[in-house]
């Protein structure tokens, strides 16, 4: 086999605004159709799982409470997790930044003389750009999740956190496999394509010196790592090679084993509409003396990368309750139109719009907070009730105002004097009744004669007729008809 | 869940800034429907805008100054009926956070509790009975995001339409999906907004309706504007206007 190319890097697209990237995505009709179809399907499946609204509300309240309780005790739970993992024989590492996490993982692998690792799905490994880093150090990382495998072959980044290659059709995959895998003819037969991936990956599983995985939940009271998956590749990645490295964001810790079932139920049903995934793996340490299989060594890397800072702000802390189900993106009308790549972020969609600006700073990613009509679909479906729309508004404020007490990196980075003046004028008009009457009278007189070429009207009228000012305002008509209380 | 108050003698009417400038007939129809239920309707002349545009953009002080003007303009303890789920949602759900720590926070909270969306108020408080005097027509309904998600108004408009004998109600395929207006969203990201409204128009066309009604003039401005530009001859108007015309004479 000649692929996947382990040193392949998922190059980041050239820096541009969200609007510019959305422009490109919107021009791709095929892409729009694929996302529409996929998201419609996912919404239907999820809705079927939560048809009983009372049961949904109660499970959601339970899940939300579990996450908030864990976050409230985060520092002590992490210490407990560390102690119990050590007791179980898992080596625990702390990484404050992406670079530190990369360095720690590379160090572990190098000490063991590892040349190739096989990876289960891990968004945190995307966050720290691990594959790229390891590639630079001569270590090949092979993605074993089918979706991740496909995009690694295509040298792309995931466009969804649960379904990384949702932007690809089976025709795309057929062409890709034909081009990249030796002896593979073009076929749209999904079974054949899957079998091909399985064959290629089996060789990789057997050859890999180490396995790397993410963590869905880490249980503090028992030192257990919990992983969900459907393909069995996660289990192979974490048991077949002699060394297993797990990497997780520090917010993924929960207090006790009892917390896991409700969260799992919320996670799988929200994500793919499955009651449960094919595999749920509980990893409690390396192979014991009387055991037949499993890695000889297990390492856990705990990544901060801005999470402590987010945790320190009680409102923004809500962001960390996320269990990465992706339901917010499945239901987001903006995500559905532009797809995940338009966000130019590891975490796209609504959760990405609040998480990315907090991790990367408002200077780089502040415009993502505006990539929403605030329709509220994301907050409505969030299984742990993260108030995403409110957090978007909060970040919009921090982006445009240089607030000294702000806990967000780059507060005020998107400040614009013009916008300040617009809102100052708006306030003056709407908070002063006399001025409001004069201004609206003037608008009604000249409004319909304003040329459609004015900046804001130009964009509006590209696909819509110009709204027509009414000859008389409701204020005038209400007075005439005796609705005034004077 | 919003508790259903006793039917009052007098209500305030909040007209919304879009209705004031672009769709006054929707406001008049809303007031007329309430008046025909035996209520005295008061339209305070100093009202203007709920403050939502500034709040949503992160300009809290500006939003609060305008919100404060509204609070002062509705001093009596009467219910405030709003022909827009979006503005009602702003006044009911977001003033508390906007006024947190302010000296008039209690006043703002008391104001918020009096805010109701028009169709909800007609159904639950007025318990309106509608007699259809119109010609047969097929109608669909577009519910705004905030009326559905912030005000919990989901079935009320449809219940009103279903009371009309000559009206065939058809639902949209994606009744809960945003039309792409989103206030400043449509200005900041016009292309995405355009893609969203195009899909909404297609949904409306597929429904086979002769007419689309909504409880929010923001959405209507977007949807009707897109239909007009695309040459789609489906009438779009506020549900209050539609109901009033079918049951009574024009306002």
What is the compact description of this entry?
The complex is a heterodimer of chains A (486) and B (251). By secondary structure, chain A is an alpha/beta fold.
Key words describing this protein structure:
heterodimer; A: about 475 residues; alpha/beta; six-stranded parallel beta sheet; four-stranded mixed beta sheet; 10 strands; about 10% strand; disordered N terminus; B: about 250 residues; four-stranded parallel beta sheet; 13 helices; 8 strands; about 50% helix
Description:
The complex is a heterodimer of chains A (486) and B (251). A six-stranded parallel β-sheet of chain A has the order 1-10-7-4-2-3, with helices on both faces. By secondary structure, chain A is of the alpha/beta class. The N and C termini of chain A lie far apart (86 Å). Chain A contains 23 helices and ten strands. Chain A has helices at 18-26, 29-49, 53-72, 74-87, 98-111, 123-127, 130-136, 146-153, 170-180, 190-207, 233-239, 260-272, 307-311, 327-330, 333-338, 349-360, 362-365, 377-381, 388-400, 417-431, 433-446, 455-463, 474-480, and strands at residues 90-95, 116-119, 140-143, 210-213, 217-219, 224-229, 243-249, 253-254, 279-283, 297-303. The radius of gyration of chain A is 26 Å and the shape is globular. Chain B has 251 residues and is an alpha/beta fold. Helices cover 49% and strands 12% of the residues of chain B. Chain B is built from 13 helices and eight strands. Chain B has helices at residues 17-21, 24-35, 52-56, 60-73, 85-98, 105-112, 118-125, 145-149, 156-162, 185-188, 190-207, 217-230, 239-247; strands spanning 10-13, 40-42, 80-82, 115-117, 137-142, 167-169, 211-214, 235-238. In chain B, the strands form two sheets. In chain B, strands 2-1-3-4 form a four-stranded parallel β-sheet, with helices on both faces. Chain B has a four-stranded parallel β-sheet with strand order 6-5-7-8, sandwiched between helices. In chain B, helix 12 (217-230) links the parallel strand 7 (211-214) and strand 8. In chain B, helix 2 crosses helix 13 and helix 5 (85-98) runs antiparallel to helix 6. The longest helix of chain B is centred in the last third of the chain and has 18 residues, at 190-207. The interface between A and B is large, with 71 and 71 residues.
């Amino acid at each position: 086999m000649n692929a996947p190319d382990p040193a392949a890097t998922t190059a980041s697209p050239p820096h541009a605004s969200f609007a510019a990237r959305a422009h490109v995505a919107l021009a791709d009709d095929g892409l729009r159709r694929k996302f529409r179809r996929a998201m419609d399907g996912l919404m239907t499946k999820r809705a079927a799982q939560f048809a009983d609204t009372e049961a949904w509300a109660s499970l959601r309240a339970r899940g939300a409470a579990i996450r908030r309780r864990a976050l409230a005790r985060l520092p002590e739970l992490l210490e407990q997790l560390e102690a119990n993992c050590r007791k179980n024989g898992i080596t625990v590492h702390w990484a404050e930044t992406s670079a530190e996490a990369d360095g720690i993982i590379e160090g572990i692998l190098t000490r063991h003389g590892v040349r190739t690792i096989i990876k289960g799905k891990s968004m945190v490994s995307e966050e720290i750009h691990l594959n790229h880093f390891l590639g630079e150090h001569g270590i090949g990382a092979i993605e074993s999740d089918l979706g991740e495998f496909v995009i690694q072959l295509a040298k792309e980044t995931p466009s969804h956190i649960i379904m990384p290659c949702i932007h690809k059709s089976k025709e795309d995959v057929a062409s890709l496999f034909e081009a990249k895998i030796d002896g593979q003819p073009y076929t749209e037969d999904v079974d054949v394509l899957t079998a091909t991936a399985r064959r290629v990956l089996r060789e990789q599983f057997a050859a890999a010196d180490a396995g790397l995985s993410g963590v869905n939940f880490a249980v503090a009271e028992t030192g257990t790592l919990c992983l969900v998956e459907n393909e069995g590749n996660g289990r192979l990645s974490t048991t077949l090679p002699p060394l297993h490295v797990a990497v997780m964001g520090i917010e993924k810790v929960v207090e006790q084993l009892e917390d896991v079932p409700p969260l799992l139920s919320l996670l799988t049903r929200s994500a793919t509409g499955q009651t449960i995934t094919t595999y749920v793996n509980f990893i409690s340490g390396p192979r014991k003396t009387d055991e037949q299989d499993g890695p000889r060594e297990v390492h856990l890397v705990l990544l901060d990368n801005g999470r402590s800072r987010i945790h320190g702000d009680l409102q923004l802390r809500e962001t960390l309750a996320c269990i990465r189900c992706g339901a917010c993106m499945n239901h987001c009308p903006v995500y559905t139109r532009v797809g995940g790549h338009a966000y130019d972020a590891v975490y796209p969609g609504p959760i990405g719009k609040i998480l990315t600006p907090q991790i990367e700073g408002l200077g780089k990613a502040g415009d993502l907070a505006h990539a929403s009509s605030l329709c509220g679909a994301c907050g409505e479906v969030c299984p742990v009730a993260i108030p995403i729309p409110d957090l978007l508004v909060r970040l919009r404020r921090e982006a445009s105002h240089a607030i000294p007490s702000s806990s967000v990196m780059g507060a005020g980075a998107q400040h614009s004097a013009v916008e300040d003046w617009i809102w100052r004028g708006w306030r003056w008009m709407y908070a002063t009744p006399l001025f409001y009457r004069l201004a609206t009278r003037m608008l009604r007189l000249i409004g319909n004669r304003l040329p459609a070429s004015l900046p804001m009207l130009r964009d509006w009228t590209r696909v819509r007729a110009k709204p027509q000012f009414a000859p008389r305002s409701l204020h005038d008509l209400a007075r005439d008809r005796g609705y005034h209380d004077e | 869940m919003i508790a259903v108050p006793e039917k009052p003698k007098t209500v305030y009417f909040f007209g919304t800034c879009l209705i004031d400038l672009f769709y006054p007939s929707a406001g008049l129809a809303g007031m007329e429907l309430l008046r025909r239920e035996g209520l005295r309707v008061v339209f305070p002349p100093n009202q203007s805008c709920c403050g939502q545009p500034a709040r949503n953009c992160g300009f809290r002080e500006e939003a609060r100054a305008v919100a404060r003007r509204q609070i002062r303009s509705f001093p009596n303890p009467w219910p405030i009926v709003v022909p827009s789920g979006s503005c009602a949602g702003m006044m009911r759900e977001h003033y508390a956070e906007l006024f947190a720590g302010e000296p008039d926070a209690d006043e703002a909270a008391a104001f918020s509790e009096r805010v109701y969306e028009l169709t909800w108020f007609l159904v639950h408080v007025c318990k309106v009975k509608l007699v259809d005097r119109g010609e047969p027509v097929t109608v669909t309904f577009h519910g705004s995001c905030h009326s559905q998600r912030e005000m919990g108004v989901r079935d009320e408009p449809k219940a009103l339409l279903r009371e009309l004998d000559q009206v065939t109600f058809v639902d949209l395929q994606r009744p809960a999906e945003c039309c792409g207006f989103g206030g400043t969203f449509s200005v900041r990201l016009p292309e995405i907004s355009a893609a969203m409204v195009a899909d909404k128009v297609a949904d409306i066309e597929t429904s086979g309706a002769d007419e689309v009604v909504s409880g929010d003039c923001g959405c209507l401005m977007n949807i009707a504007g897109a239909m007009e530009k695309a040459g789609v001859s489906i009438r779009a108007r506020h549900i209050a206007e539609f109901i009033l015309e079918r049951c009574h004479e024009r306002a």
